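Late entry, written up from scratch paper. The run itself happened at the end of the previous shift, but nothing got recorded in the book at the time, so transcribing now.
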Amino acid sequence: MRALNFRAFSFSLSSNLNCGRFDVQRFKPQFSTSETHYVKLTFDDSQILDCLSQQRLGEARGLLDEMPKRSFQDRVVCWTSLLSRFSQNGFIDEARTLFEIMPERNVVTYNAMLSGYVKCGRLSDACWFFQAMPERNVVSWTSLLCGFANAGKIDEAREVFNVMPERNVVSWNSMVVGLIRSGQLEEARQVFNEMPVKSQVSWNVMIAGYTEHGRMDEARVLFDGMEDPNVVTWTSMVAGYCRAGNVQEGYYLFQKMSDRNVVSWTAMIGGFAWNGFYKEALWLFLEMKTNHELEPDGESFISLIYACAGIGFPRVAMQLHAQLIINCWDYNDYDGRVCKSLIYMYSMLGIMDFAWYIFLRNSKNYCIQSCNSIINGHIRIGQLEKAQSLFDAVPVRDKISWTSMINGYFNVGQVAKACYMFNNMPDIDAVAWTVMISGHVQNELFAEAAHLFSEMRAKGVSPLNSTFSVLIGAAGAMAYLDQGRQFHCLLMKTQFEFDLFLQNSLISMYAKCGAIGDAYGIFSKMTFRDLVSWNSMIIGFSHHGLASEALEVFEAMLTSGTCPNSVTFLGILSACSHTGLHNQGWELFDSMSNMFAIPPQLEHYVCMINLLGRAGKVEEAEEFILKLPFEPDRSIWGALLGVCGFGKINMGIARRAAKRLLELDPLNVPAHVVLCNLHASIGQHAEERLLRKEMELKRLRKVPGCSWILLKGEPYLFFSGDRIHPLAEQILSLLFGIKDKLH
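Output as recorded:
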């Protein structure tokens, strides 16, 4: 057998074993690794350990000899078991000393010592020990292979695997696990396919490798081809689908599981919580507790804490916290994750006293994540001064700390302070740039946002999809079609594929800018559409008066299996209103509650008033209002007043609507103007003059209509009757000249 060419490894370990009162708790393990599973040492074990740690070898040997009389073979087994207990508790040097003084050893003893070195990460010692072993079996080789694989030394692990004189299923599985951990899934699959015998663990390892890397199609092929998947297999698939965002498929598999353990339930609860299905997560937890009598673990509670934070019900959150205390999970929080989750939950709910209490109680275990949660909690409830005080006090700040404060100042309109924070940020990444651009857009500083985007690219920072989404949304809001097209072209040059959010933003932008054909072009090429996609297209067609196209998209949406929501019906009812589709509008309005269980909201009632009024049925519109299940507000009466000018003018209804509206809002300018115009249109000029005089006494002035164009990056605004622009006379002359030519 050829010698292995292992590379040299050096590890610096410190061991400070001072003599003192005999207490096993004072012995410090010589390594820290997640692989260790601590076992309880007996009093006799502790006595031997004390002798070994102080090099009192004769006394230690005497204690070994005093063990209950057994056969020779049994004594070797007993000593080997003791060696394993020492190494599992971190006392690897004492385990080696015990190994040296053992009068007899077998291959199991050698493997136990080798395993101890491997599990504590002392691979250099493991290699030398392996080379010195008088006899090796498949367990010895597999142990060394696992050591290299767990340490990320995949080339060395592969070398061991290739020269192994004998392999068992554990050896093959270990090699597959090592390759998966190093990200080499194709190589792992090749080894998996070459396995002469596959155990259930083999299948589970390969399936878990695919699910953890988001490759669910390949995982599903293996899962469907597995003869007898167990609870681990099913749980891996459920967790994988939830991790990939396909919660529906994950829940489908979860329901099909014949056997579920607490890990399975936790995976599904977490899948709901992390994907925003907070109510479903809580209901599933209640089902687990009541119908299956399973006790949740720490992972279950962490997912539920985030669900409570998302759902926004403080009482439910406090009840969950009480459950944590009853189950002692807040005291058994060995890694601090429960504590961090609770701080996050109370900060999200704005209950800052509780968040601070938990934070200060665990102040020894300082965590920047918890500080960021509290900073965001104060920002969320408008306490920027307290957020700034904590930000200034914390010893370490990360990018999230800085971007949270920047975003907080933008939210209250303090743009200068936000810019000051940004300019002092030590390490500005794409997220911080996006927050700056979004903040300027939020405060209607569109030119500055575009300048920041140019500066971001000039500094070599690649924009995120969310950066483009913000800018495209701003272009749509301002109807800057040319700028929107430029962002779209830049996207096509820099992004290999558009995500759903970007495609929806582009549809909305083109529709708002009047390019409805371009919007539909993007919509028709989408491979997957969500509810926002369908709604954006329906509303786009509606705003352009294309009711038949809007109805066609609505029918296609229902055919695809996508359920409409209140926004969908707002768009489709508006389309029917603008094009006079009276009967279809009524049918759709009735179907909201009857077929889709969507209760109509104020906006839907306003749409129906417009629908009736535009169809010349103003009397029916008034009757509709009087039968509403709530007290009409000013928007309802304003809608009725607005439709009184369609068809035959009904001044009686107009006066009644105006009276009710002005009772609610005496200074409503549009109501006065509409009523004036109605009087004028039927020749009641005396009433019109009286109403205009009343407006003068109340100092009511209608805000003039406004339009604008973007020329060379600068917006030009024009108000109705405005002659302030220096080129106003030339513009009007040109416009009237075009008008004369048309006539």
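The mean pLDDT is 83.
(Scratch paper discarded after transcription.)
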